[in-house]
Amino acid sequence: MNILAIESSCDETAVAIYQGDIHTRQGHLISESIASQIDVHARFGGVVPEVASREHLRVLPMLVADVMADADFEWDSIDAVAVTSGPGLMGALLVGSSYARGLGLANNIPVLPIHHMEGHLLAPGLGGDLPAFPFIALLVSGGHTMLIRVDGIGSYRVIGQTLDDAAGECFDKSARVLGLPYPGGPEIAKLAITGNKKRFKLPRPMLQKDNLNFSFSGLKTAVMYAVRDIGELDDMSKQDMAAGVEAAVGDVLVKKSLKACEREGVSRLLIAGGVAANVYLRELLREEAGKRNISVALPALSYCTDNAAMIAYAAFCRLCAEAPFDGVGDVNPRWSLSDLRL
Questions:
Q1: Helices then strands (H, E): number in the chain?
Q2: The dihedral of CA 85, 86, 91, 92: what is its sign?
Q3: Residue 44 has pLDDT above 90, yes or no
Q4: Does the first or last residue of the chain, that is N or C, have fewer Cβ atoms within 10 Å of its Cβ?
Q5: What number is the average pLDDT over the span 284-310?
């Protein structure tokens, strides 16, 4: 089975073709192409939805043509089109969904709506096997930071989530305070390598609360006040602050994730999403999980950020599990992962 997938939920346009065998449940990526909009949005300090939609519309036909040519496929070789249908920016989702439905109608092939966060959750399977069920998933992508108990494909229970700013938003906003370009996460990580994470006493929000929820708005505010008190920022102060922010976010994510494993009686942990590319977080998670005999599954760095390979793979996993596809023909910017069915 060959699945062509389209991802256009935010500021990356991506197309991929995944080939898999439903009977053996084995497959591999045939071709993929990604067009990033970072340079387009950088001057605004964040994603502008209307601009993102227009960029998707401009490059999507070219990306589809590129992956089809790279795979040396004609349309009769494609068995299904998978497309991100939510959550995300309404206009951006509409561009991808409308184009996917057009491809489906023109070529008489089914269109499979895929939840963006399910794509991230299953992305580690692209580079190897997913953990055995059940496992705990920490999803940290864009405006999302959540802990999920995963009992099977489509069987997800959210057990913790952010109450305000997500981890990625905290990185972006802290970077802006430090005068760093968008997106903030990679810039913070680069400066943090040479910084002293102990110089600034930054809070670990909600770490002492007896729940699995997150809150990063207080950390962002603490960074703003600390920078204000310093006055003029020199390079060393920027490096130290970046290291402090990275350590604070990492501590909260890791400790809450391990607490989730303990409470649910699960010894397998998976982390996915854009923030999962942070090297400090990956190393800290491996180290702390190892002390508790908890195994950790991580996606390849190339599959942490938004991509279409994960959307194609999620569709393949649902087909293998004979799970239903919800929301055919619609997009849902606020689609909850809890609404998916097995």
A1: 10, 10
A2: negative
A3: no
A4: C
A5: 95
| Look-up of token digits 């008489």 | 108
Range of the domain at 92: 2-122+303-339
**pLDDT range class, residue 326, cuts 50, 70, 90:** confident
Q: Is 141 helix (H, G, I), strand (E, B) or coil?
A: strand
Encoding tokens for residue 124?
């580690």
How distant, in Å, are the alpha carbons of 15, 43, 211, 238, 252 from that of 166?
27, 22, 16, 22, 12
Write out pLDDT tens, residues 154-181.
999 999 999 999 999 999 999 999 999 9
Here the CATH number for the domain that contains residue 66 is 3.30.420.40
Return the SS3 of 150.
strand
118 and 191 share one domain: no
Return all residues near 157 (Cβ < 8 A) that are at least 6 apart: 148, 149, 151, 338
In the prediction, which pLDDT does 162 show?
A: 95
Sign of CA dihedral 253, 254, 258, 259: negative
pLDDT for 61 beyond 70: yes
Residue 181 sits in the same domain as residue 270: yes
Sign of CA dihedral 269, 263, 143, 60: positive
Taking only the tens place, the pLDDT of each residue in 101-141 is: 999 999 999 999 999 999 999 999 998 889 999 999 999 98
In which residue are the tokens 């959540």 written? 146
CA nearest to 6, candidates 309, 301, 305, 303: 309
Q: Is the pLDDT at 328 greater than 70, yes or no?
A: no
Decide: 138 and 147 in contact? Cβ < 8 Å: yes
CB atoms within 10 A of CB 242: 27
Q: Residue 156: enclosing H or E segment and its boundaries?
A: strand 155-161
Residue 324 tokens, joined: 């239903």
